[in-house]
Amino acid sequence: MDHNTLLARIDVAGSLDLLSRMVQHKSYSKTEGEKQLAAFMSERMCEIGLDSELAPFGNEGRVNAVGRWKGTGGGKSLLFNGHVDTNPVTEGWTVDPWAGKVDDDFIYGIGVSNMKAGDAAYFCAVKTLIDAGVKLKGDVILTYVVGELQGGVGTYSLLEQGLRADYFVNSEPTDLKAMTMHAAAFMFIIELTGNTRHLSKREEAVDAIAAACDLIPRLNAMKFSGARSPAHEGINRVHVGVVHGALGRELHEWRTPQVADFVRIKGSGRYAPGQTEAGAIADMRRELDALQARFPGLKAEIMSEDRAGVPTMPPFEVAPESPIVLAINQAYRAVRGEQQPTGPVAPSCFYGTDAGHLYTYGGMEGIVCGPGGRYNTMPDERVDIADFLDMIRIYMLTILEICS
User: Which of 10, 21, 341, 364 is nearest to 170 (CA)?
Assistant: First the structure.
């Protein structure tokens, strides 16, 4: 059967219905709904003939859904990876975030972009190929993991249990672009200690808030040392997200005539493969030393935020000439008739994804490419139906190229 005939076999209504049903699961991290959606996907994989299991981990009853379409032998294996947990619903929605509403252009719902559309797309790709009677040499493995929003604990657990493949596709939302590199994430805390005075003697004080106002734009503009290339440096980023300033470490706010002598800053940083968190912190330390020189008497300290055992999302990188990159590039050209944007594509390159775990701890080559992104993590989160369906087609052709 030629590729165009295969692609025409996609069940559009059935694919949208599956995605809508996935959205209707309230699968917040570390809730029963997260587990129920994993079980739902395991049941769907059994229905189409995959060997499926719920792989337990931890002591809280959490499970990942894993399905395997076994090949006849002699081919390369391909693992698809996606998470079922979602961000919380925020204010500002105009549609029901749990309804899985479909109109002429979009499908809506919390988590539909991040990342249930990607999850559904690779299931539908496999189902279409199976329904068409396609036989492959290599295995295709589908994973539906929990706990990505806790640093990727679900995927990390599968790797600890020994799950591997020759190549992987992580389906985080990239608007169908092929992301070949993304940054690692770390959290930091900076504490600035000044010297208070009443406002009448302000000139004698060391104003911690004034120092923070000087520092924050410099932090947000930082790049880190040791980047392997301009592309690697391009995915460096620092962002301050929390600032508290007042009197003393207890941050007393009731005595406003006094100059604030203490500020606590919290933020996040991103660094590229080849760079390290320790190196990034050292670069920020040098920025704090310069701040202390500009504000004599100021004490500035920086530390990594203790995340209580949650794994840090490591960086990810794959060579542009890797077979998995070339396969998905070729599939994109066949479906859309144009070159696929490929590289450390923004803004996706600043995300943390489970691709970092698959690459760093699993030792696998892979690509990050999924539907959604434009309307990610915002009210009325949605995915273009055309993108969702094209992603199914691209995944089908990628499977055929890698596993045949």
Answer: 364
